[in-house]
Amino acid sequence: MAPGKSKKRRSSKKEKKDVGSADKKTSKHKSKSEVQRDRRDLNKYVNKQRTLVFASRGITHRDRHFMADLRDLLPHSKKDVKFDGKGNLFMINEVCDMKNCNNCIFLEARRGKDLYLWMSKAPEGPSVKFLIENLHTMSELVLTGNCLKGSRPILFFDKSFDSTPAYKLLKEMITQILGSPKGHPKVKPFVDHQFSFFIADNRIWFRNYQLVKGDDQSKEPVDTLIEIGPRFVLNPIRILSGSFSGKVLWSNGEFVTPSRKRASMKIGKQDTVRSRRDQVKKRKKHKEKTFVGENELDTVF
Question: Could you tell me the sign of the dihedral formed by the alpha carbons of 243, 244, 245, 247, in that order?
């Protein structure tokens, strides 16, 4: 065999090895980049929902604790000072614009007793007004449930939310305002609790549960639910087309204001007091009519 041919064969083998190694390197490099791209796509902050949570002046200490609980449950929320504009709730849209928020939860206190909650999609709307009833904060309940601060919740809705268009709109607003968006800087990539919403007696009942797997042998990822808190009931009043303004899209005909309830209770108490006074007067008249006189035998001894 000629020496020139052997050299050419050796060089061709080396070239094949170099090409194979280069292909392997490029394939490995592509796979790593694809993995990194997939991770970036998963952690992308696409659904940019930011919720402003604040209150009006005149809220009680209990309402303030409830507002702090809401902020702890919503890692995508922002704070602001107390709002002082009575009757000018439309100015809240400017506050949301300054804070770069597209959602708003506003707690409105009235008469030092009643607490109203506004949910709004700023600045175009719609907005919903609720009356908060049966409020119990986390510090009051002291339940055994616990979850990681900043984790994402699962939103569970009752089947009755799909019964009417008004409840469908409320469901969509609650998911956008209370649901923690994926990829938010303050949201942690864990799901360990659940927000549950039920409709009963024309009201929305809220519960917060911890997701726990008690039995290791079970195939289901979650076995038990442990309540964390807080507890509250939302009584819907009306839905407006705009943010804190606009046409009334829906109103609750069965809603009765708390002041009317208190007035009716006072009237009921007044009626009971009047009936007691009338009974005392009737008793006195009856005694006067049936009075026989003193018995003579009582003074013998």
Answer: positive
Cβ within 8 Å of residue 270, ≥6 positions away = none
Instruction: At 125, give phi and psi (nearest 5°).
Output: 100, -175
Dihedral over Cα of 203, 204, 209, 211: its sign: positive
Residue spans of the chain under pLDDT 50? 1, 7-8, 13-14, 16-17, 19, 22-28
For 199-246, how does the pLDDT look when each residue is reduced to its tens digit (9 = 90+)?
999 999 999 999 998 777 777 888 899 999 999 999 999 999 999 999
Surface-to-core class of residue 292, CB atoms within 10 Å of its CB (0-12 exposed, 13-18 middle, 19+ buried): exposed
Q: Give the other-Cβ count within 10 Å of 2's Cβ.
A: 7
Residue 90 CA to residue 123 CA, distance in Å, equals 9
